[in-house]
Each structure stands twice: as C-alpha cells, then as structure tokens.
Amino acid sequence: MKVAFIYNDIYRNSLFGENHPITEKRISNVYDLSKIISFNNVKYYKSSIASVKQLSIFHDKDYITALYQAEKKQKVSLENRKKFNIGTASNPIFKEMYRRHAVATGSLILGSDLILNKKFNYIFSPGSGAHHGKKNKASGFCYFNDIATCILYLKKNNVKKIVYFDMDAHYGDGVMEYFKSSDDILAISIHQKNLWPRNGDYFYKDNFISFPVEEGFNDTEFKDIFEKKIEMKIKQFKPEIAILQMGADCLIDDHMSKLCLTNNSMRYIIEKFKNLSKNIIVMGGGGYNPWITLRAWIYNLATLANENSKLNLNSKGKNFLKNIKWKKKPKQNWLNEITDLPNIFSL
Asked: What is each CA distance from 347 to 220, 266, 344, in whole angstroms?
C-alpha cells in the first residue's frame, strides 16, 4: 500500500529556541533517514502553508492575526501575550512561529485532499500533531491545532465518521475537549495520569474515551486496554478515516513522561487500525529524545507502508543516528536498530 509522506523543509532550520524542549531537528531527521532507507511504497509531497481561510476553520481570526504579527515583528505586546498565550517560555516568539505551524496544518489539509480524491489511503505527516492548541490561544508548544482543523475540514467535505486516537503521554485537551459531544467523532486518548495539562480524567461513554494510566505503563498493559476497552468501540463505530496522534513522549527514555511503552506499541496500533479503517492519517506529536522519536516515527512509516523488512539499517543509516547531537549520550541499540525490545509482562 502506497503512503503519502508530507513534509516541508521549514522544519530543518526552524527551532523554538536553544533552551526549549523542542530543540532537535526531529522532523527533518525523519525525512532524511527515510530517504536513506529508501522505502519503495512511499511517495513524497511538499506541504504548502495553510491559508487564513483554512486556519479559520477552527481558529479565531484575531488569534491568527496576532500570531502572524508576532512572527513578523518578532515581539508581542503584554496584552496579546496574556490574551493569546504567546511569547511565553512554552510558546516563544521565534522566526518561523506562524509559518511552521501553518505548514503543519497545510500538511493535514493536503493529506485530507489526497484521501478525499482517492489518490491515497495512508498519509504520514510527522510535523503535525499539535493537540493542545485552542481556538484562540497557544498551549503546550502548539500554536495552531492542525488536528482539529483537519477533522473539521473532513467534516465540511462530507466525511461522516472519524476516529481520533491519541497515544501521546499528555492528554490531547485541545482536540478531545472540543469534540467531546460530537456524535460523528470517536475521540480516544490514552495518556499519563496527572501529567500536564492535568486534566483528562477517566471517561468512557458513547463516542468519548479518556483513559489516564499510571507511571510505568507498558506494552502488555497498552495492548490489554486496547483490546478489552477500545477495539470493539471502533469496530462498532465503523470509521471512514482514522487520525492517529503518535506522540513519542509515551516511550521509555523520553524524559517528559514516566510511561514505559516501546515503539512496538506504535507498530501494534497502526497494524490494528489497518484492519479498522480504510483511510489512516498518522502524525507526530510529542517526543523529546531525538533518537527515540526518530526511530519510533520511522517505524510508524515502515509499518504504514508495509515495509518493516527495510528496517535493517546499512552503515549510512547507522552513521546518521550516530551523528545526532543531544545533551544525553545515546544507548548503543539506539544507534544500530530501529525497533525496541518489547517491554512486557504477563497479566
């Protein structure tokens, strides 16, 4: 099955700031390593920037304008800082702050069009996944909520049933709370209990599932919850499109959470959704250890493209991993292998 990988080189030189958790060029790394691996079933598309009209599908226009002006002037008034939550430590002013996130939204619009026009069934957009963004303010490193915009765009184009599945360590409040009462959206989040934004309490009813889990949550527990609590809900819902937010901060060795999943859980979910929905959009999200994030998202792409056999890295691929620079020294297996050893136990 062919996969459309949607990318833009704005990610290569666009950084939130030297001391921000998003410091590594994690999106361009995925693109570069995928080219080294040379997948047969992947076609590359360049994302364009979403228009103001497209951004306005979800966001208030005064917020869009404020974000545009903040990028243009490279500063923000105290009033707008308080009103829109931009120019803060989490959501700083930086050179491409508007364009980077408008490109992430444009990527999902393009991916949606490729599905709507029956050119592809599977879309991969690692630069998207800003699930905390609100209609009128930035939140949690998320300036434009590309996911909510994508869902509303699909609904405007007569897609009747959409399932949203979020396995980021942090509760995807910007998407989940907005669609909480939507009968045509099945919204599901599995996230770490009591982690920022410190909401996302347990809720299991109709088309809304919020599933907080304890620290140390592993692959066995993840599979158990999905098969006992979630899978049948999705089958009964019969989605036309599945949107998967695959934040890699849920994985072992990501310092932003204390969950203990491996990238095998991500492969498992993608394989499951291949049997649950004809059309799938896979995106990124959180992920702050550059090796863990890169390996997970490459594994996601390979699984989506049915090319896991291509994951035995050659010397060029291994050297690419070795040349990544970060504050922490990598474990040896991070430099030689894409797949993790499963973190499992018997229930």
From this structure: 8, 20, 9
- Encoded tokens for 134: 């609100």
In a domain, 84, yes or no: yes
Q: Are strands 279-283 and 185-192 parallel, antiparallel or unpaired?
A: unpaired
DSSP code of residue 56: T
- For residue 222, the one-letter residue type is F
Residue 346 within a domain: no
Q: Is residue 142 part of a domain?
A: yes
- 218 occurs within a structural domain: no
Query: Residues 172, 175, 179, CA angle at the centre, nearest 5°?
Result: 130
Phi-psi region of 143 (alpha: psi -120 to 50; beta: other; left: phi over 0): alpha
- As a whole number, mean pLDDT of residues 310-319 equals 95
282-300 tens-digit pLDDT: 999 999 999 999 999 999 9
Q: pTM (2 decimals)?
A: 0.96
Q: Assess contact for 307 and 40: CB atoms under 8 A.
A: yes
Residue 24 sits at the vertex; the CA angle it makes with 105 and 41, to the nearest 5 degrees, is: 60
Classify each residue of 98-127 as buried b or exposed e, where b means 16 or more C-beta atoms within 10 Å of its C-beta.
Answer: bbbbbbbbbbbbbbbebbeeeebbbbbbbb
Determine the structural domain holding residue 122 and report its residue range.
3-162+261-336
Q: What is the CATH number of the domain that holds 148?
A: 3.40.800.20
